[in-house]
Amino acid sequence: MRIGILGTGTLAAALGEGWARAGHEVALGGRSQVKAEKLAERLGHSMLAVPPREVVIGRDAVLLAVSWDGVEDTLNSVGASDGVLDGTPLIDPTNAVAHGVGTLLTGYGESMAGRIARLAPGARVVKAFHLFPADQWTSPPNGGQSHVTVAMCGDDETALHVVGELVRDVGGIPATLGALDRVRQLEEVAGFVIGLAFAGFDPNSAVPQVPSVDRRTSS
Ligand SMILES: NC(=O)c1ccc[n+]([C@@H]2O[C@H](COP(=O)([O-])OP(=O)(O)OC[C@H]3O[C@@H](n4cnc5c(N)ncnc54)[C@H](OP(=O)(O)O)[C@@H]3O)[C@@H](O)[C@H]2O)c1
User: Fold this and answer.
1) 3-class SS string, the chain
2) pLDDT digits (tens, 9 = 90+) for 157-179
3) Tens of pLDDT, residues 59-94
């Protein structure tokens, strides 16, 4: 695939490296061209550093790897309101949560993915990759022996399929929770995990071990 990454920070580096290693062409860019070039050089794998507008043109998927409060500026800088992302799977990994507390910073009932969908008309927004720390995709615990489930929300089946493949390419198992009208629930989970972790509790111990239902035999 031809993948574009907006952002040059920790998550951009981790997923960019993972996808390039899986054989995809990765182009990345952010508000600092110098940072984009340094990151591309550091990661190797023929990674391209390009201006933000070029990151989004002609891509099979675009990852929006910027801080939640930089989302609007970033999408404006690529001309998202003009429809440049129309038809493109746009991955939203953002966490608009208070640092160390976990409360959501979006308005009551609002979601980041919904906001992104409004700022980028026509984009096929998929919420994914927001729950695990970035190094899950480069140096997973147990050497990657235990696969993690990446819960996703999105309205477009084709985009969910594309993002699901990108999840598999970095060692995850994709799981669609529902459409974008359910995404606030997924964003709240990040706040739940962060809140408990910073309070000194293992978030994994706060959810019951419920057996999964085999949908092939449950009907
Ligand atoms: N790191 C993780 O483990 C992790 C895991 C899951 C989800 N996430 C989410 O992924 C996103 C990126 O996280 P990160 O850890 O990669 O953050 P990071 O290392 O701090 O990088 C943030 C990126 O956002 C850019 N940015 C910030 N404000 C901006 C603005 N106003 N306009 C344009 N660009 C702006 C930064 O550009 P400059 O360098 O020029 O400031 C940088 O490229 C966040 O929404 C985060 O919640 C991160």
Assistant:
1) CEEEEECCCHHHHHHHHHHHHCCCEEEEECCCHHHHHHHHHHHCCCCEECCHHHHHCCCCEEEECCCHHHHHHHHHHCCHHHCCCCCCEEEECCCCECCCCCCECCCCCCCHHHHHHHHCCCCEEEECCCCCCHHHHCCCHHHHCCCEEEEEEECCHHHHHHHHHHHHHCCEEEEEEECHHHHHHHHHHHHHHHHHHHCCCCHHHHCCCCCCCCCCCCC
2) 999 999 999 999 999 999 999 99
3) 999 999 999 999 999 999 999 999 999 999 999 999
Q: Which domains does the chain have, with CATH numbers?
A: 2-205 (3.40.50.720)
Q: Is the CB of 191 under 6 A from ligand 1?
A: no
Verify whether ligand 1 is closer than 6 Å to residue 203 (CB atom): no
Q: How far is the CA of 215 from the centre of ligand 1 (A)?
A: 37
